[in-house]
């Protein structure tokens, strides 16, 4: 396999280049945290809802709970899909991604410092163009940070200890046409031989690595190259998250 | 009952004044019609999906089909609601509003001119502040018009006859503190003694009148005043729809 | 539009004439209230079940709760429909009508006087020939009155205050062949250009007005005529309810 | 065990005496067969719907299909039960009885003579006082006979051969207070040590025998006595079915 | 009908001969009772789970609860069936058999002696060749006995009184080719004119008798012969249960 | 982190040592492929069902289809879980694992060589002690191989080309007490800081890599060590698969 990281792709990007990423905080008026995250044409609305109390099985533990639900609007994709509410059941892919987002966020939260409060992250895909789960994790972290700050400002979080122990971001990488590339849009995703989603903390630790051979199996050397790209991409996303959170949070005009 | 239509309301509006209404066409990249409609803080994404063919029971009729699905994002409201997909069933209110939107749009479409094509309108409430169903109908009409134009431009609609026979818009009216008012935000809606949703065509015919006494029953004279306000409000919405559709449809920047 | 209220209809009635209405109280042996209501061939069994206690969200409020469930037997209609229990979900129309009946009855009950008791109204359509929802409301009110009287006789309702603040009845009106008519059977209902259900209290206040243009939109003058007919019809139903309740309640032979 | 078949029971009947049984044909206006069957206070509406065609798996076989669905109205019993449509699933008991009724009717029908037609029997319990499944089978046979006659009169059943090869009826028997008794009402049913439902054809053959020890196991001699009673009771029901079907079928007044 | 009990059947057995029956205790490592029961090629895994406490409706009664759930693996049969978990609902047959197993076991347990403990019997069919419900009952009794012994050894069952008042076993009988036979494999079951499942206690009392005419109705004399065979077969199963329980319970190698 | 690969674990194994693995082919009589796979106390029944034809969306493609369903018996675990069929919905974990097994097997099958046939793999966990999904993949491959051989022997697979392009096996690895270990039983799994499932082909290519930080994030060096262990373990499983398939397939005694 020849991997030439400098040749441009269909959309003109280099192999190790992210799409344009936008993080718009305060996208809703009422939610404790709400972020519209865009990875190119992929747009996900990430909303954090903070409530006092925890699910029954966690009561009295002194620990909080963070969970996530992912969903796609029926026409977020090129052709319309049936609503899962109408079908009466959640599909396997939806379940799988919701669980992934929840685990990723729980990796950077100190549930004892959160106290017996619950934060639910709703990640609704308004438009899908590849990488919806990684955009969701990246945006959800920012919404979570805003909800935690809200809880602290309200006094709902009692401890002075930091609730967030690190930040977390995610990116997709894959092998397309024999070449490892970063942040795949839909057109690359459907043609990828290998597809991998990687979740990394701000300090560079791995939270999740999920690689799948879509066509032929991949080799150890390819896996190594993909991990290099993912580390590079999540580091860049970490910077964008920091920059977004450094801005004052204003109401939407 | 004293109705003083000139005293301002909590948000400063006169009794017969709409909230600020915005209709943003082309909000999504792929859909045949997509409109973000805003009635003040209420924001509904209305998306029209055009597909060749009709449901089985309509095949061979030469007639098209238009239907609608309404849903709320879990945190569109002040406190988070459970997802209907997770609960595994659609609630009664959701069903009711989906049916209302579908009937309203079918009132202004000539299904024979549409031919054996289907247009599905997805109306997803991103943020709710009262009047979500009336905003949905008003925005969905614009998305429908764009999808019809798309079908004609593509040649998917064969006939040269007009497919849309009229336009349609909707508004809520109600009696709040003994006074009939137009276009109720949430804070008025929960305190309304009577709540009414009215769907009116561009040429002034009634499509739907749904009035409910929340507290004490209402009198014929009150009903008349509410209908007057609704006619006034929908006429203004009709103008805004025309203005929006008069603009060229551009891709979102 | 020419409206000639004196010409007979297919079944020989004048435009402003109800079908034969029968209210048979005590149709079941055990229920606290049970009424077989007939509007011509439409037959609905309305059963009121009185139980001590209220749903969890209402506990400690001192207030009672009244709710309703509507359903159709599978062969109540001309052709058999699948059971909703077998399909595993309640349809939108069923939900909508159940909610309408519940709201209508709650408009005439003083939940504080009822105390923390629950009355559930089951309205099961045994045979459908148009107007099932309006028959259901009209019959359910009588069953409700019997259940309230039962609660008072048993001492389960503690207060001496009246629990029912008014009576309530409902009727359908519509425009058929250009003419406004009262109380539509199925054959008129399917041909109606406009269909309206109106719920009115015994003292003449409106509880619900639900009008739908099935074909072309309706005009304000038509709406006014329909409301006149509905007021006339519900006044007549109110008399029949009073007459039925004036009889002593006897066990069925 | 002393079994004294002559001492009267709580309701005054002898051990081998049926409750008053009524079979009212033509209880609905539209159905091809409809019978209100009453075993004392137990009232079941049995409705036969005849349609041309058979389920997919039977197409082209030249054979018809007969099936049944049993259900109870929520307040047919002393205390209200939740609707299975609202719960979203059919309970085990409902399934079991629906299957029993279907099997019992199929035992007396010649599906080849029926031709590729389907008859669905809906047995809805309006009021339950024990023996609802046996009343349902007994009434459903009469509704089935009317639907078959309708099919023959309409020419929908092509063959001249008899479609019904026999009649079928059912009764409950049980051991109450150590004594075998026939046709148990609810008050006996809940106290029975052994409960048995027996389905027998008009010519005396057994179709189903379902006996259950509710408390202590039963002995062979007791089983024999119960079978004797069941044979006696079903023979009497067969006579009543014949008498009912001998009457001309008239529209309900 | 000529019944010749000595002629061999397709598998060489006499009419009154059981298939080879094996009861393997301790088939799982963790369950309080677990038995692999085999009736010829039919293999059912019966697992008893003992837990302290009872369902809410039984709390404070001082009585325990025993219940059962039956299911078939998708490829236990000759052709694969869809999973009930995937279909989202339990079929009628599954419900019916689960209820039968539960009733059968409750007939031999003294719930007061059990105390407020629950034992759930899971009967999963690994391979089906006729008689799965009777094998399940026969095996489940042995698993139940082991779970009761476990509860007594652990001190979770407080009383010294016997918890099991008797043993229970079940067998199928039927009329095949005009001849009554015992313990039908699939190939006989599908051809049986009459099919009967009989549940009998160790001391010879009847718990359940469920006979169904699959083709033509059966006569009283045939019923008597089938009951004779069932008594004979269950007596033999009772011996096998005793022998199995007389062995020491060892961990699986 | 100190990783000492030679110190024994709780069950006496070295860090790089598999549990005892057993692959019993032909465990069922009728299925085209059936394997009981055991990884220590973990026991999964893997059954391959071969049927002619493919799902509708694949018809006419000339290509076959392989899919998988995973499930756990309710008492396969230490404490009993509710059945998913009773709950009426499949959980997220079940969905996720079913999809993983299906993808893993499809990586080694040439669907064109298979022709328009479907093979469904049912993997039912009889007893769970960690690593159920990896055992399922490893066993399912062997069952798949038997089903393919059956299809070729029957002539149902027309082409002479090899249908299986490689073999596939899977193993879990994880970091427990700071040490990377191979093939985790339940007791290690619940205490693992990092948990990874790796699916590898017989020729050493990666099909899936799924690593999750349960506690603190893991470093690149740890990830490398885990991948080394997984490659070693799957190579050993590949040998065991080959040995099992080299044996003649015999009916179970």
Structural summary, described in words:
The structure is a homohexamer of 253-residue chains. In chain A, the strands form two sheets. In chain A, strands 1-2-3-5-4 form a five-stranded mixed β-sheet. In chain A, strands 7-6-8-9 form a four-stranded antiparallel β-sheet, with helices on both faces. In chain A, a hairpin with a 2-residue loop joins strand 6 and strand 7. Chain A contains six helices and nine strands, in the order E-E-E-E-H-H-H-E-H-E-E-H-E-E-H. Helices cover 30% and strands 28% of the residues of chain A. The mean pLDDT of chain A is 93. By secondary structure, chain A is an alpha+beta fold. In chain A, helix 2 packs across helix 4. Chains in contact: A-B, A-F, B-C, C-D, D-E, E-F. At the A-B interface, strand 3, helix 1 and strand 5 of A face strand 3, helix 1 and strand 5 of B.
Compute the CA-based radius of gyration of chain A: 18 Å
**Helix-strand sequence of chain A:** EEEEHHHEHEEHEEH
Strand order of the largest sheet of chain A: 1-2-3-5-4
Biggest sheet features of chain A: 5 strands, mixed
Low-confidence stretches of chain A: none
What's the pLDDT, averaged over the residues of chain A? Answer: 93
> Roughly what fraction of the amino acids of chain A lie in strands?
25-35%
- Number of E-state strands of chain A: 9
What would you call the shape of chain A? globular
By oligomeric state, this entry counts as homohexamer
User: Which two chains have the most extensive interface, and how many residues on each?
Assistant: A-B, 35 and 35 residues
Tally of helical segments of chain A? 6
Which class best fits the helix and strand makeup of chain A? alpha+beta
Helix proportion of chain A? 25-40%
Cα end-to-end separation of chain A: 51 Å
């Amino acid at each position: 396999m020849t991997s030439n990281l400098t040749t441009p792709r269909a959309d003109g990007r280099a192999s190790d280049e992210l799409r344009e990423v936008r993080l718009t905080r305060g996208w809703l008026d009422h939610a404790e945290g709400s972020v519209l995250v865009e990875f190119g044409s992929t747009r996900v609305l990430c909303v954090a809802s903070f409530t006092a109390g925890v699910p029954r099985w966690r009561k009295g533990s002194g620990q909080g709970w963070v969970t996530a639900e992912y969903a796609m609007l029926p026409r977020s994709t090129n052709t319309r899909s049936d609503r899962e509410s109408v079908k009466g059941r959640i599909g396997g892919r939806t379940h799988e991604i919701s669980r992934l987002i929840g685990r990723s966020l729980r990796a950077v939260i100190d549930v004892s410092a959160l106290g017996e409060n619950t934060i639910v992250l709703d990640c609704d895909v308004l438009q899908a163009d590849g990488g919806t789960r990684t955009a969701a994790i990246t945006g959800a972290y920012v919404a979570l940070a805003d909800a935690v700050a809200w809880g602290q400002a309200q006094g709902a979080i009692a401890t002075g200890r930091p609730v967030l122990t690190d930040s977390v971001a995610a990116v997709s990488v894959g092998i397309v046409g024999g070449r490892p590339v970063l942040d795949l849009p839909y057109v690359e995703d459907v043609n990828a031989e290998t597809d991998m989603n990687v979740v990394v903390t701000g300090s560079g630790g791995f939270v999740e690595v999920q690689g799948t051979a879509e066509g032929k199996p991949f080799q150890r050397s390819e896996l190594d190259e993909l991990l290099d790209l993912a580390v590079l991409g999540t580091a860049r996303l970490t910077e964008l998250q920091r920059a977004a959170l450094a801005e004052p949070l204003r109401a939407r005009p």
